[in-house]
Amino acid sequence: MFLKNLSFFFLEALKNIRTNFYLHLTIILIISISFSVLGIILIFETNIENILSSVSEDMTLEVFLKNEIKADSEDFLKLKTFLQSYPLVKKIHYISRSQAYFDFKKNFRQYSNLLEELGDNPFPASFRLALKKGFDNKKELIDLISILSNWKSIEDLSLNKEWVNHFYSFVSLIRMSVWLLIALITAGMILIIYNGIKLTIHSKSPQIEIMKLVGATNWFIRGQFIFEGVLEGLIGASVSLLILFLTYQLLFQKITDAFSFLFPQHSFSFLPVEYIFIIIVSGTIMGLFGAILSASKFLKDIYG
Amino acid sequence: MIQLSNVDKVYSGGRWALKDINLHIKKGEFIFITGPSGAGKTTILKLIYLGDKASIGEVILFGKNLAKLKKGSIPYLRRNMGIIFQDFKLLLDKSAYDNVAFALRILGFKKGDIRSRVLDTLKLVGLGKKSGEIAGGLSGGEQQRVCIARAVVNEPALILADEPTGNLDEGNANHVMEILRSLNSKGTTVVVATHNRALVERSDGRNIFIDGGKITKECLLREGNVS
């Protein structure tokens, strides 16, 4: 019955939108603006996530060895085997004392005099550990740092527990703020659609009353309002994407310049395809839920 | 078909609309409920079409106790009834045709069937030439006939008519009564609530007289059989 009447619902929804044009236009505009704000947050979230994930990917832990540890000693081999087999470690690279000395000399030519004045090679040998990708390895990284801090043949580490804790707290804070904003905007949009449909239902209560009295089921009556909500959500979300894209195109150069100044190795990107898809689908779903909620609540008031 | 047993209806504020109503309407019967304005005629019809619930007592319709009826079953029960409302309850921004077709669309009739049935019914109530006109632009009498057309278009088993001739001149009132009679002769049960004594006096059927929410008199019309 519901499917059979789809075209009827669709036409009735269009008629409702046409009849209360300014009300629906306002609702669609509010949804578009809300989704645009959501889209801006998502664009920033995408770019911040890119930076964080690349920082995390590039994250290395340098393990500085005591000078007395020789490259073929038992302690050295034990540590190497341990590091190679540790789950968080992607790969390890050994840098000998002389290699570290030459690297410094090559990278910091202006300080080569300083090295000559020192006479002895001041650099320790080290293992450079590349860590596996992902933000969920905080505990594993802290565990590794704890183990290595107590390792006899190790002089020092490039990261400490406090730094790791601060880094991951910063990442969680950014993520939490973004998702909190997203949740607030989503709740706001559901309320807007809910109230919009409520107003439509009030304006159509004589029609609903007649429909009920001639034997229409509540689902039959809801049909047109559901289509109305879905259309509002869909149009609102699509318009917001258009606004976002045009704004992005218009301000692209300026944003990219500012962004590359702050993060030289990253380019500023628009929403990925999956986010575009999520915005359209969530607009539709929000419209659907807003309509079902308000229609269910207010249909009860009219003749059972 | 319809059984009201010891029915009371009390509205908020303690106003009694009906008191101890016992009424049995058989299948195929033509019955008038008469009485002055505010006597409780419309309330009885409302209890039958589930527009309201009895405060006390039992209402049985088509063998079903309405107090125990699940909400989801109400629309299906209403599909067996055609209701003619005192205030018409039309969609004033839609055409006469759409108002009548609307009921059939809800009942799931096919497009082709809807068209032929609606046009035939509008012709039957004398509005064949006004099917395309917007209901809001029709006269009171014409709107009442659109309402009648909507109530009878699906040939329901029961017709509930609340002042069906209230806005009609004598000629049109007689025509409407003829339509209801003709449906009744095919087996439809018809319940007419009216305060129009003249209309009742020239009709056949049973008359229930109601006053102050109570049934005060019951008679078979033309035979003057008071019980």
UniProtKB/TrEMBL annotation, chain A:
Lineage top rank: taxon: Bacteria
This protein's GO CC annotations: plasma membrane
UniProt similarity note: Belongs to the ABC-4 integral membrane protein family. FtsX subfamily.
Organism phylogeny: Bacteria, Candidatus Schekmaniibacteriota
Protein name: Cell division protein FtsX
A single BP term in Gene Ontology: cell division
Gene3D superfamilies registered for this protein in UniProt: 3.30.70.3040
FtsX extracellular domain sequence ranges: 61-136
Automatic annotation (TrEMBL), chain B:
Pfam families to which the protein is assigned, alphabetical: ABC_tran
GO BP, one annotated term: cell division
Entry's Gene Ontology cellular component terms: plasma membrane
Ranges where the ABC transporter domain occurs: 2-226
UniProt KW ATP-binding keyword: yes
Membrane topology of the entry: Peripheral membrane protein
Gene3D superfamilies in the cross-refs: P-loop containing nucleotide triphosphate hydrolases
Record-stated family: Belongs to the ABC transporter superfamily.
Role of this protein: Part of the ABC transporter FtsEX involved in cellular division.
Name used for this protein in its record: Cell division ATP-binding protein FtsE
Protein source organism: Candidatus Schekmanbacteria bacterium RIFCSPLOWO2_12_FULL_38_15
